[in-house]
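Practice record 12: protein with pyridoxal-5'-phosphate.
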Amino acid sequence: MDDRPRYDRATAALDPPFAMLDLVALRANAADLVRRAAGKPIRVATKSIRSRPVLDRILAMDGFRGLMAFTLPEALWLVAEGFTDVLVAYPTADRQAITALAGDPRAAREITLTVDSTEHLDHLDRVLAQSRPRQELRICLDIDAGYVALGGKFRAGALRSPVREPEQAAEIAAEIAKRPGFRLVGLLAYEAQIAGVGDTPPGNALVSRAIRIMQARSARDLILRRGRVVNAVSGLCDLEFVNGGGTGSVERTVREKAVTEVAAGSGFFHPRLFDFYSGFTGRPAALFALPVVRRPAPGTVTVLGGGYVASGPADPMRLPQPYLPAGLRYAPDEGAGEVQTPLLGEAAYDLRVGDRVWFRHAKAGELCERFATLHLVEGDTLVESVPTYRGEGKTFL
Ligand SMILES: Cc1ncc(COP(=O)(O)O)c(C=O)c1O
């Protein structure tokens, strides 16, 4: 069945703007991630989902274990709501949340904090100086998985941890082992330059080739370095997990013996930026509908809203994609607007006031910061409407 009439039919009773999740596409994407993970568990990156009921549905499928949260207040809330095994993959300085964690035995059992320096440990100790009793905190050490070449002149990957080499990791692991109140249980090494960079960007074959070469070299470097880091740290603690990767690198990351689990988030919704990978194809699962509200000129319609620009380096790829009907594009002078968005193209001739245009966000979970509800569609039926984090009054970031 063609997707546009199906989506229009399923949501006919709703007035746009609204957001929709195609459950068949979501399940197909989840199954493909599991296939690519080849038996290793996938930790679900909550930043790319941002809806509790959707996280529940994903964790109910085979192949997924644990959550990768983006803030400690979020993790505390998720654990209070019954979720378990939550890795906060980004360091926290939140005094109130740290105090709450150390005072709650169940939260301290289920939540793991990420650090990359003794400065983080010092901060935690300072915040908890007066806290009694103080639960032992589970700690994950973040390792830089970026790619460095030309003697440091070239670097690709996210600027995260200053810890890169096995000796540095061992030094911090020894410090954590020595300090009361902390237990090192995991390692995290996220290769953003592979997992989050599509190797078939539109337009430029040379850039594609350069990306592929960089990614292949980076993967070779990581097999050795991640393995050495794990070896260096293993003697100093009982590691429960070594986490790596993301949607764009699943099959590559799980091949490394040292990696025990892979993270993935974006692959569930399959947003626009994930169309440009040669290793896999997903199905757009999360969409939003905007209403046509006027027709300023022949071949032009204007929809309400639309300026939901994705985070990252600002460029046109961060704009939502006008998706259905196919063949619509932005007016170059206006782009995606704060209140209204003109759209040009053949398809605009057939659109009338009150019709919908379906869009895809450039990224995954950020869509949920714009909408209180995700309408879940199965085939051509709306089966349930569930809250996003925002819909539950939670604005973590
Ligand atoms: C630590 C970490 N792991 C994995 C990911 C990958 O997530 P996704 O699958 O959404 O690309 C991210 C994304 O930024 C991350 O920060």
